[in-house]
């Protein structure tokens, strides 16, 4: 027995019916929402355009090509004194002495006051108001309310660990922080997607770590799931 030939018009009618039902149900929902009595939850989820960026109430997403204002931190920590070269008057401390989570975590981390006090409990703070602030927070058992300088959108996943362990130097992203005072986002550090992809495509550590398999690794690094999970 020959099978009956399907009528293509039937499929079109089904699709049209679904589209019409969806349109009608959406229209009814909008009408119902807009006609809700005042005082109910009509404003809980207002039907208007929503931005993926944080509200303009002091929060921000720290990306883009525009220069970011330097934040006023609770303590004016001077990176040049701690991480600067000895010749320039610094102590040449490794970045990871303070940002010790960078090799093993998503976040580089802000040092606990115990780390600061390892040295500063032996440092004279006379006529040094910023050092006095550290000891005041220590005495109160409180952490300084640091303002986050680098902040990606919530839909982006980034981990310091594979980058640091892979051989990426802190200065390649954050700039020469050892020559600066209070933390700021480097002008070249846009943190836009193209900026990251360009680095993954061209960074020499990929060749050093993967040798003959480097081309394959560069393809893997372009997988959307790496950053958008």
Features:
229 residues; mainly alpha; 10 helices
In short:
This protein is mostly helical and 229 residues long.
What does this structure look like?
This protein has 229 residues and is mainly α. Among the domains are: 79-188, no CATH class; 192-229, no CATH class. It is 40% helix and 0% strand. The protein has helices at residues 8-34, 79-83, 95-98, 113-120, 129-140, 160-166, 170-174, 193-202, 204-210, 214-220. The longest helix has 27 residues, at 8-34. It is elongated.
> What string, H for helix and E for strand, traces the elements in order?
HHHHHHHHHH
Provide the helix percentage.
40-55%
Shape: elongated
Oligomer: single chain
Detail the poorly predicted runs. Answer: 23-37
Set down the secondary structure blueprint.
Elements: H1 8-34, H2 79-83, H3 95-98, H4 113-120, H5 129-140, H6 160-166, H7 170-174, H8 193-202, H9 204-210, H10 214-220
Helix pairs in contact: 4-5, 9-10
